[in-house]
UniProtKB/TrEMBL annotation:
GO terms for biological process: D-methionine transmembrane transport. InterPro entries: AA_ABC_Transporter_Permease (IPR051322), MetI-like (IPR000515), MetI-like_sf (IPR035906). Its main location: membrane. SUPFAM superfamilies: MetI-like (SSF161098). One of its GO terms (cellular component) is plasma membrane. It holds the Pfam family BPD_transp_1. Belongs to the binding-protein-dependent transport system permease family. CysTW subfamily. Coiled coil: none annotated. The chain crosses the membrane at residues 17-38, 59-76, 82-104, 188-207. This is ABC transporter permease. It is a multi-pass membrane protein. Keywords: Cell membrane, Membrane, Transmembrane, Transmembrane helix, Transport. It is found in: Cell membrane.
């Protein structure tokens, strides 16, 4: 009976939402400042530092180039060190955060590049410090774009959290593998896919709505 899977589906959905939300919050705390650094230390920017920018950019690109499934396995020792286990939702959040930080950094950098440089020059002419320019010009002017970019990251996290089920990460991916694939119950696989599709659609809808409200143009 499919009805016996409803409690498991509900629990798995809760685990997925938990993983995505917590991972996104932690990754954003690091990733947004990272994106600011990537932009402001670039050539011709307010904190220009070509050497530092190149080094930081290289590190970001290296981490982004590692496939998520390989990253999960590669950092198992680090995961055990941080959360005490390599299995479960808490363990899955470690690679999710590490994979998301450089992704968020690049997305925020892209959004900040859209801010007209004339606004920065105007702020500089009024004696604004680099921190004031970042806080009162760059971030406010790009908040709609950043919101849209972060929505993309959240959707990516939903997919990666499902992938984490391949190594016992919990959530909908784990349920699909253990109960759908290994026990030959295709209806469970279909149910998890439908739930993931609905979740992604909701995230996109909320993200688009927020971005429109924040857009001053």
């Amino acid at each position: 009976m499919f009805t016996d899977m409803i409690p498991l589906l509900t629990k798995a959905l809760g685990e997925t939402v938990y993983m995505v939300v917590v991972s996104m919050v932690i990754a954003s705390i690091v990733g947004i400042p990272l994106g600011v650094l990537l932009h402001t230390t670039g050539k011709g920017q307010i904190l220009e530092s070509p050497g530092f920018n190149k080094c930081l950019g290289t590190i970001v690109n290296v981490i982004r180039s590692i496939p998520f499934i390989i990253l999960m396995v590669a950092i198992i020792p680090l995961t055990r060190m941080i959360v005490g286990t390599a299995i479960g939702t808490s363990a899955a959040m470690v690679p999710l955060v590490i994979a998301s930080i450089p992704f968020i950094g690049r997305q925020v950098e892209t959004s900040l590049k859209e801010v007209p440089y004339g606004l920065i020059e105007a702020a500089q002419s009024m004696g604004a410090t680099p921190f004031q320019i970042i806080w009162k010009v760059l971030l406010p002017e790009s908040r709609a774009s950043i919101t849209a970019q972060l929505t993309t990251v959240i959707i990516s996290l939903v997919g990666e959290s499902a992938m984490a089920g391949a190594i016992g990460g919990g959530g909908l991916g784990d349920l699909a593998i253990r109960y759908g694939y290994q026990r030959f119950r295709p209806e469970v696989m279909v149910a998890t896919v439908v739930i993931l599709i609905i979740l992604v659609q909701l995230v996109q809808l909320v993200g688009n709505t927020l971005a429109k409200k924040l857009d001053k143009k």
